[in-house]
Specification:
- It is a single chain.
- By secondary structure, this protein is mostly helical.
- It has two domains: 1-23 and 30-94, no CATH class; 106-166, no CATH class.
- 58% of the residues lie in helices and 5% in strands.
- It has helices spanning 4-10, 48-89, 97-105, 107-132, 142-154, and strands at 19-22, 37-40.
- The chain has a two-stranded antiparallel ribbon.
- It is flat, with a radius of gyration of 28 Å.
- It starts with a helix and ends in a 12-residue tail after the last helix.
């Protein structure tokens, strides 16, 4: 919540209008329209100052979304590091430390497996993106293609979904 405070303070001056002038029947020409009354907002008048503020609001909102995405990634890495610290703390006890000793002895083999797996996985994901990206939603970009390929690996892929064309 503290990330939204500077955003709110910098954009508190922007207010979207809740009402606007109604110009009557829209089948008449623009020159013959008469302003009749104030009505709840359905058709907005164009206002240069408000438009610039709205574009600035959209730009800052997009930036805030990117910041939140990075915050989520960093929080996930933080949780992973905390799990590793718990494993390190379990090392003092003989039975609980069996896991950490096993992982430390298998570290080089695990590293080589992960490197080869990622090369193969990214290769297959990229191939699926190139072959099926123009036809199937699941492969429309590289990120979606990687998610779909991962779902296939863990067995969580529904074959009927592939008929959902772009």
């Amino acid at each position: 919540t503290s990330i939204f405070i500077p955003f709110h303070l910098s954009h508190s001056s922007f207010q979207s209008p809740t009402s606007c002038r109604y110009y009557g029947n829209h089948s008449r020409s623009a020159t013959s329209r008469a302003k009749t009354s104030i009505t709840p907002a359905r058709f907005f008048e164009y206002d240069d100052n408000n438009h610039a503020a709205f574009l600035m609001f959209l730009s800052t909102s997009a930036h805030l979304g990117l910041v939140m995405e990075w915050y989520t990634i960093i929080a996930g890495v933080n949780v992973l590091l905390l799990v590793f610290r718990v494993f390190k703390l379990m090392h003092f006890q003989a039975r609980m430390g069996l896991l950490t000793r096993t992982l430390s002895h298998a570290g080089t083999d695990l590293f080589h497996f992960i490197v080869l797996f990622m090369i193969t996985f990214v290769g297959f994901s990229f191939m699926a993106y190139l072959l099926f990206g123009h036809q199937l939603r699941e492969f429309m970009n590289l990120g979606e293609s990687m998610i779909t390929c991962f779902e296939m690996i863990v067995g969580n892929y529904e074959v009927g979904r592939q008929l959902d064309y772009v």
